Amino acid sequence: MPLRRTRALPAEQRGDPAAAAAVAVALLAARDLAPGELRAKLTSRGFEAAAAQAAIEELQTRGFLNEARYAENYVTWHAGRGQGPLRIAAELRKHGVPEALIEAALSQGLDWAALARKVCHAKFGPGTPASWREKARQMRFLQYRGFSSDHIRAATGADPDWTEGP
User: Fold this and answer.
1) What angle do CA 87, 141, 116 make, to 5 degrees?
2) What is the CATH architecture assignment of 12-62?
3) Domain boundaries, the chain
4) 153-166 pLDDT tens trace
């Protein structure tokens, strides 16, 4: 895929927080971004780090940029796609979201064991695996998706307290 070419940023705009804020608002209109992601996008477009930081602080005070909201939306979206809490947390850490916000977003009431069962049943069908080889295959799949060992045991039927539901 070829790199997208952009025009060089005029020298007078490189240090202008207002110009950086205008570009940041346009980027945020497309999708929600973490402050770290937004900073990287602004600097890659030619803005100085100080101008990018000033624009981010301005957007945070105006409520356009909110890390807690970003983390909650990220968790909801990726859990809906069948990803587990370990994988989601790792991705949020890569985006520079603070650990406290990650923990708060992950504990928003999602039933991770039920989601692991749902993902496992969607991929492999209902019921528990017939052989250890099949169970190991399903466990590796759920581990790749980012579920903890407790969630994996519940989903594959290896948990003695779990009974298979409807």
Assistant:
1) 65
2) Orthogonal Bundle (1.10)
3) 12-62, 67-106, 112-156
4) 988 876 444 444 44
**Which token pair is 152?**
């994996």
Q: How many C-beta neighbours within 10 Å does residue 9 have?
A: 16
- Domain with residues 67-106, CATH architecture: Orthogonal Bundle (1.10)
Q: For the whole model, what pTM was predicted?
A: 0.79
Q: What is the pLDDT of residue 20?
A: 92
CATH number of 112-156: 1.10.10.10
